[in-house]
Prior knowledge:
This protein is an alpha+beta fold. Helices cover 18% and strands 37% of the residues. The chain is built from three helices and eleven strands. The protein has helices at 25-36, 88-96, 110-119, and strands spanning 17-21, 41-46, 52-56, 59-60, 65-72, 75-82, 99-106, 123-129, 138-143, 150-155, 165-167.
Amino acid sequence: MTVGTNPSPFIVPDFKQCALVVEDLDEAVRRWAELLGIGPWTGYRLEPPRLKEMLYHGQEVEFSLRHALAWKGEMQFELVQPLDGPSIFADHLANHGEGLHHVGKYVSDHAGAVGDALRAGFEPLQSARGFGAEGDGAFAYFQAPGVPMIIELIEAPRVRIEPEFVYYPPAVD
């Protein structure tokens, strides 16, 4: 990619998500809620057969994870705990430990946004579809050329699946 190229969809819309990889999702949610006042956290388990069309570095695989989402102002925070199968999350834990993993943005045309990313030279890392209650929803992770950050393109599902848990921050007196 050359300077001055418009690598849409990475210009518009704005990034809305900051995600971290964690060893223990339940403990991480408690720490973030109690120390930073972020929450409520809504946690989900994503795995086959709900997840479909799972790819990891271009190879068809099966993987599973637990993740929790919470909003603070205009920013959505995501904590991700890898469970089974190969994933960029497990790779991160093995190579770097817990910490910042990716930034994400919601897109209305996921297939179009993925195509734009590929044409702009972004390297596909991992993707899947079907995490919504109606079988919709998709995510795709990319390594940006020349930028040491993973970027996620997210197609929000129309209806979310039933959460595994909801955790509220402790009340402040």
